[in-house]
Description:
Domain Acyl-CoA oxidase/dehydrogenase middle: 268-376
Mean pLDDT: 91
InterPro entries: ACOX_C_alpha1, Acyl-CoA_Oxase/DH_mid-dom, Acyl-CoA_Oxase/DH_mid-dom_sf, Acyl-CoA_oxidase, Acyl-CoA_oxidase_C, AcylCo_DH-like_C, AcylCoA_DH/ox_N, AcylCoA_DH/ox_N_sf
Domain Acyl-CoA oxidase C-alpha1: 412-563
Number of helices: 29
Keywords: FAD, Flavoprotein, Oxidoreductase
CATH superfamily of the largest domain: Butyryl-CoA Dehydrogenase, subunit A, domain 3
Helix content: 55-70%
CATH architecture of the largest domain: Up-down Bundle
Strand content: 5-15%
CATH topology of the largest domain: Butyryl-CoA Dehydrogenase, subunit A, domain 3
Domain Acyl-CoA oxidase C-terminal: 613-753
Amino acid sequence: MQKVQYSKGIAPYIPFFYVIWSDDLLSASEIQVVKKAIKEDDSLSNEERKILANWLDKGNPPKNTEVKKWQQFITQSKAKLVESEIYPLETFSQKVAKGHKIDVTENNQLQYVEKTLGIQPNHYNHLFNVEVDRQIDSLRFEPKFLDEILYGDKLSEVRRFRDFLKHQDFKWTIHPTKEGAREVVLKQLKNLASGGWGAYAYPEEYGGKDNLETYAAIFEHLMFVDGSLAVKFGVQFGLFGGSIQNLGNSVQRDKYLSNTGDTSLLGCFAMTETGHGSNVRGINTTATYLHEERSLVIDTPGKYDNKEYIGNALHSKMATVFAQLIVNGQNEGVHAILVPLRDTKHQVLDGVTIEDNGYKLGLNGVDNGKIWFSQVKVPIENLLDKYGGIDENGNYKSPIKNPNKRFFTMLGTLVGGRICVAKGALAAAKMSLTISVKHGLRRRQFNDSIKIQEDLLIDYPTHQLRLIPKVASCLVYHFALERAMYEYASNKDGDKRRIETQVAGLKSIITWFSSQAVQESREACGGKGYLRENRIADLKNDSDIFTTFEGDNTVLLQLAAKGVLSDFKSEFNSGGFASVLKLLGNQLNDKLTTINPLYVNKVDSEHLYNHKFHLHALDFRLRRLTYTAAMRIRNYIKKGMPSYQAFLKTQTHLLEVGKAYSEVLAIKWYYEKTRSITDDKYRDLFFQIGSLHSLNIIRKDAEWYLEQGYLGSAKSKAIRQRIERLSSELRPHIGSLIDGFGIPEHLLTAPISKDW
């Protein structure tokens, strides 16, 4: 066969032209991308530019003989295509040229073409009669260093905890009955307490390290062991112990907190009622003060006023019970009281009735129960009175005079629990994605010839789109929750309304994301993902409750939206006329931006990958939704509708405000963290990850953006293509990224996550 030759400038372009003509990738806009590259490529002579430009004429395409010469040129080079390269096609083009003894170097313009057109190896590897190296991972990024970025100064303690979990007691097994599962989980809980991990968030004088951020990381890691253990851990040390620490006084802490931390006192957190669910303020359990006895009488007035779904109910000796505090005939609102449930022989006390909730969808290692109280007396010393108590004269006293503010301040001390729930849900997503990605890096399936090795699952574009954007979102949400816990822990005694709004929204979007990620992971593993031995089935069932646990997501998003509207109203009112002008100016600027065709159809990668574009797009949606929601509510009220009804009329609108607010917050905090990474290579990686997450979020709301004129059809299409391209760009590093989650190898017990 006659040897084909091309000039030094043209040679690297041959694989590109072969790909784009063979797969017919050239649209009008894409021709402009290639023309731009040719024009700006200093390695080309004018004659070479002319030849390449002629090959771009769709009206007069290259003849078949020319295309066959390109194919021969590629084949004769004996070059090897390595799919895990950062720019696989541009790197392959270098190798093709060098195979013909043509000395070429890295070509930035061809990298630009490859990136901008979104050309993936799956588009062309079938076209080349060459050896294809499908490396599992590029090894460009160190999982240990990714782990350091994720956990920062907590990492040494986190790694010490991971080592602690090597104990045989934490080995994952299938429990056929809830009774057996509960025994194992209780033993694990006591093991954790003996190691000092349960009391980690408590002050040092009570056996702790006063470190709430590391406590949250411990909770997250327990999801890798067993969801039931994580929840029971959170109930015992976070909810029950946390209520004593945050709502109680020094005497109560001295009496109970150390015993809670070492599990010699097992407790539960009795807030939710069958008849009220999320409406804590409306609970019906009462705590009536008897001054002559200096006692409180705890009572469940009706059949459906019982405490419901209380974790640790069957193992506990004491409960933190939330009840309406009645003093001198006056209802002073919801307060928390420590109420004994059982004696030293674990017998239920008089006046207390406890029933097992029975089998659940998941978390059957947690002993959830229902509790009724019938005229149960406890001493006044059991009232957790940090925000409201009863003096020696029998009068109610509180440092916070406003009942509404007092109620929300009390609940605000429990925001840390919502952060932990979101962290637990995210851990389930991380674990499921790790298992499914590792399976995809090993399992091969299908090809166009039975004589050729089958393709890895992860090398199929559909598989990449199923999993890789979700891995990116895990990293974004990880940083967001780390920041949320830092903000919460740094403001222990201040006004927590702002962080409560932030956490309400983040908890909602992250737990919903987790449910989707776990389900996608299960499906990506086929029937293997349905086997309990491969963990995803249990992760799915155990994490499903997190969408309603510690607050129903739909309710929490309304809470977040009301916080956004309160800020909007405050800003609007405080500035008077100037504030109105500012608001209208912002709206006008948005309008001008969206109708500018140069913006709405701007599709180059520099723009679409720019974090400023992501922040602007997401913030635009938030501001527009907030403004229109506020105007709708105002108009309803002006027509005489009560404010409560006005909020009900705009409820679905408010949910979108809450979601938009939460997505803006998550990506804003993520990019702030990313900018602080000092290593250029890793900082660029995390910006790339942020781009994939952000574009994916924008894409999901593309219909709204198109309606608003913020995106044109060309830009919407380009965003979809960018998501595919970014997924393929991150494919070479996906093994390192999931290992960077830091899930200990001894906890990755799923057989499909191992080498075959």
